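User: Hi! Is it possible to get a structure for several chains at once, not just one? Here's what I have:
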Amino acid sequence: MIPSVPKFPLAHGIDVALDWLTHNFSWLTQALSHAISAVIDAIVAGLLFVPPWLLIIIVAAVGWRVAGRRVGIFTALGLLFLWNLRLWQPTVETFTLVLISTLIAVAIGLPLGIAAALNKRTSRIVMPVLDFMQTMPAFVYLIPAIPFFGLGAVSASVATVIFSTPPTIRLTALGIRQVPGDLIEAADAFGSSRKQKLFKVQLPMAVPTIMAGINQTIMLALSMVVIAAMIGAGGLGGEVWEAIQRLEPGKGFESGIAIVILAMILDRITQRIGRDSKVASAH
Amino acid sequence: MAKIKVEKLTKIFGPHPEQGLRMLDEGKSNADIRETGQAVGIADVSFEVEEGEFLVVMGLSGSGKSTLIRCLNRLNEPTRGHIFIDGDDITRLDRQALLKLRQTKISMVFQHFALFPHRTVVDNAAYGLEVQGLDADERRRRANEALELVGLDGWADSYPGQLSGGMQQRVGLARALAVEPDILLMDEAFSALDPLIRRDMQHEMMQLQQRVKKTIVFITHDLDEALQVGDRIVLMKDGRVVQIGTPEEILNNPANAYVERFVENVDMSRVLTAQSVLQRARVVAFPNDGPRTVLRKMADENYASLLVVNRDYTLVGSISAEVASKAVKDGVEHIESLVEETPSVTPSESLMNVIGILADWRWLLPVVDENNKVLGVVTRAGVLTALAENNDTSDSEAERSDAA
Ligand SMILES: Nc1ncnc2c1ncn2[C@@H]1O[C@H](COP(=O)(O)OP(=O)(O)OP(=O)(O)O)[C@@H](O)[C@H]1O
Ligand SMILES: [Mg+2]
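Assistant: Yes, the chains can be modeled jointly so their relative placement is included. Here is the combined structure:
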C-alpha cells in the first residue's frame, strides 16, 4: 500500500480552469447560446409549419434524386411511419440539431482538414487532438457545456460538434493527401498557384473521401444528439429518456426504432452524394 | 541563339546538397555520395537545344533523364548551374515569373498521362488556359483546336476514364499544346502504350512536329524510338552526359563501351540513310549522247545502266545496256527518246526505304537534292556492304565486351 502519495489533482485543476473560463467568457458563450438557440427554434418552427405530408414528399424526392428509387421509397415509408407513431415533432427537433451541428462541424472541419493536409506542422498538432476528442466518452463533453451554454439544445449541439467534427477533418486531410503525385505535378507543370491547385485539383479529387467523412460526422452527430437528451436537448432522445425514467419499454422501443429509421435515411442519402463523381469511378 | 542552353547543371537530392556538391568536386563517386544520404540526380550536364529541334534524352533507368527534364521547368530545383531559355537564366526567376514561364512557354507531357479524372477531355485540354485566367469561350475554342490537332475532335465531352491509353496520351499532348508553348517536355510519353499504338504515336508526333515546329525535349530509354523521332540524341549515364550527336554519329562513332552496348542491337537499316551509302556517279549519260557513246561509258565502268542527266545534272532518267545496244542496231542518233523513267531518293531517306525501292529497281538508284539535281547513286551492292560492315563492328564489339 502506498497511501502516502497524494492524488494528482487533475479533476480539481480542470474544474478550476473551467470555472475561470466560465467566469470570464460567459458573456460570449451566453450571447452565442442565444444566437444558436434562436436559429434552432426558427428552423424547428419552420419545419413544423410545413405540413408533414408535404415535407415527406420533398425529402423522399430528394432521396430519390440523390440515391435512387429504393432509397426514395424507403424514405417516404419511414417518415410516414414516424408521423403515424405521433413522433413527428421530436423527429424534426432531432433532425434540426443534427443539421445545425453538422453544418458547424463541416464549417470547422473542412478548413482544418485542408490545413492539416497541406501543412505538416498543423497536422502534427491537430491529429493528436482529434484522437483525444474521439476517445473521450461522449457524454463527458456534456458536463462542461452546461455552465457555458445552459441546459438544452445549445449545449447539446456544442457537445455534438466537438464529438462529431473529427471524421470530417481526418477524411478531408486524407482525401487531399491521397491525390496522386503525378496529378499534383501536372498542376504544377502548368503553372498553377497553390490556390488554383487546391480548388481545381486537390479538393475536387478529394470529394468522395470528404463526403465519406461528412457522412460519418452526421452519424456521430445523430448518436450524440440522442445522448444529449440527458441535458434536456429534447427530440427523439428525449422520448427515450422519458421512457427510461417511467419504465415504459414499449414507448422506449418506439422512439428507439424512430431513431434507427432517421439514421438510415440520413445515412443512405448522404452516402450517395459524391460517390457518383468521375473521381470515384476512376479509382 | 540556342532556344535552351543548359550549363553545368547539377541536381543533388537529400537534406545536405552542399555536401554532395563538395564531394562531387572532390571527384567522389555517386556511390560514395549516396552513403552520406544524398543522391546525385545529374552532375555537370551541359548541352544546347536549337529552336524547333527534336532532342531525345536517352539512358538506362536511374541515369538522370527525369531529373534533367524536370529541372528545365524547375519541378526539380537545380542545385547548381544555369538554364537559359531564350537567353534568360530561368534558375533566377522568382515564383511569379516561374509560374508565368510554366503557363506560357514550357509544357509537359507525362508518362502515365496524369489527366484529371474529374474533368472532361476538353476541360483537361483547357487546364493550362484556365490557369492563365482566360475566359471560358476562348478556352474551349483553343482546347478544341488542340484536340483537333491530335485527332480527338468529337471526344471533347468524354471523361479520360472512358478513353484508351493511346487516346489518353493524345489528351495529354493536347493539354500541352493548347497553351501554344515554345517548348514541349515529354518524359517517356509513349512508354506506357503498347507497341503498335506507340509506333503510331511516334509517327504522328513527327508529323505534328512538322506542323507546329516546337522545340521538343523527349525522354526515352528505347533506342529505336530515339532513332525514329530524334534530330539529336543526348546519352546519359549516372547523371552525366556520355555523348551528344545525331543518331548516325552516335551509331557510327560510339564514344565509349557504354554507348556501344546501347547501340549494338539496333536495326541498322532504320538508322542509316541514303547519304551513308551514297556513291559518286562516276559516269553519266546526257540526252544528246549517241547510243555508242553510252555503251562505251558503261563498259568503262562496268555498269549495266547509266543515269541520264541534263548539263546542270538534273535527273532525266536511266538507260540500260540492252536498250542502248538495240538502239545501235536500229541506227538511233540520240538516246533522248529511249530514256526510262527512274525512281529517286533524297539523302535523308532511311536505308530501310531504300532497300524497299531497290527490291523493284535493278539499276542505279539516283540520290537527288530538292532541285532534282543528282548527288550520287545507291547500288544494291553498296547497301549490302554498308549493312554488313555495321553488323561486323557491333558483333566484334559485343565479343570484346563479353571478354571484358
Ligand atoms: N526525389 C528524389 N529523391 C532522391 N533521389 C532521387 C529523387 N529523384 C531521383 N533520385 C535519384 O536520382 C537519380 C536519377 O533519377 P531519375 O529519376 O532522374 O532517373 P531516370 O533516368 O529518369 O530513370 P527512369 O528511366 O527509371 O525513369 C537516381 O539515382 C534516383 O535514385
Ligand atoms: Mg524517369
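The pocket of magnesium ion (ligand 2) is lined by residues B 65-66 (CB under 6 Å). Chain A touches chain B through 23 residues (CB under 8 Å).

User: Great, thank you!
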